[in-house]
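Q: How do we represent a protein-ligand complex in a form that can be generated token by token?
A: Start from the inputs.
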Amino acid sequence: MRILITGGAGFIGSHTAELLLAQGLDVTIYDDLSTGKRANVPAGATLVQGDVRDFSALAIAMRGCDAVLHLAAVVSVPMSIQRPHFAHEVNATGTLNALEAARYLGIDRVVIASSAAVYGASKQLPLAEALPPEPLSPYAAQKWLAEAYAATYAALHGMSPICLRYFNVYGPRQDPASPYSGVLSRFIGAALAREQSTLHGDGRQTRDFIYVGDVARANVRALLAPDPAPGLVFNVGTGRAVSVAEAYALIARLTGAPPAGRAPARAGDVPHSRADVGRARTLLGFAPCTSFEAGLEATLAWAQQRLVPTLPMSA
Ligand code: NAD
Ligand code: UD2
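Then emit the structure tokens for the protein with UD2 bound:
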């Protein structure tokens, strides 16, 4: 069985590619390497460098595949605000291209990466999939449109797409250098570089942090699941909320980092986020299995190993 992963040279995609290969599946990665890295591509996967805005190149890369995991996106919310047309072409039109290419090739299962961003600043926790979307950025609106296209292709063409609303994903290979990287990778990167981290606002804002290894397992579940119900949306989170201040305190304890500096809260910041994880458990048979503490330690170990200079062979 061959899986095409758009955006597979990225953070979540490369972990998913590794898991699929370990389970004996074949993997083709289609990626323009705009934020992904060739070095992330696991041995055994085929890399096709291309842009999801290029329909024919995407369809050619997809030929011979049995299912598609569509992760390619402009993932930065600030970028989507500064360049909404560009982000729309990648995030919305790119998703339409993936669905239309799959339809043209007779591929029924397309798993699409959506985001908790679709919920906006919803007050009702835990966040359940049936809540009305409240997009607060072009990025969130584009993810919502991607979900609408999936539901349309299910109803109109009888395909079985599945949309996964990832919450805050963290783990090895999330690039701490990127200004758009997750808070945990930024805290760990700063601690190891002996730089001071900064807590925005009072630090009591909470997030549902899910380890990338669990997200990869959710992706594989969705790719291989018999039809739970086509075009459906599933939260991918842990159901546990952790405050940013708590997260920093744990990282400081593990690294000996000093107290963080303070800065005002981000404009439009979501005060609290936590997933209702019932639908994924009952319909996909997915439940996360990595505790926040274990995930943080694994991420820290990866970051430390990266910083250890590799000794020259002659040593
Ligand atoms: P990432 O930036 O590491 O991965 C995105 C990949 O897509 C990169 O490899 C990049 O090179 C590729 N890409 C971007 N534009 C492309 C284009 N036009 N054509 C082809 N490839 C292109 O980010 P990630 O965290 O792995 O995100 C993967 C998916 O998960 C995205 O759709 C993102 O919106 C979604 N998501 C991520 C999180 C998170 O916390 N990381 C949360 C919610 C949703
Ligand atoms: C995540 C996504 C964003 C969008 C959003 C939807 C990432 C990196 N961001 O934003 O793309 O999908 O979810 O809800 O995946 N913080 C600090 N110090 C720092 C950095 C961050 O205090 O150095 C705070 C930040 O103000 C926020 C929290 O930590 O309150 C989480 O920030 P984030 O950027 O990791 O993720 P989030 O949920 O704001």
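The chain has two domains: 2-167+209-236, 169-208+239-306. DSSP finds ten helices and 13 strands in the chain.
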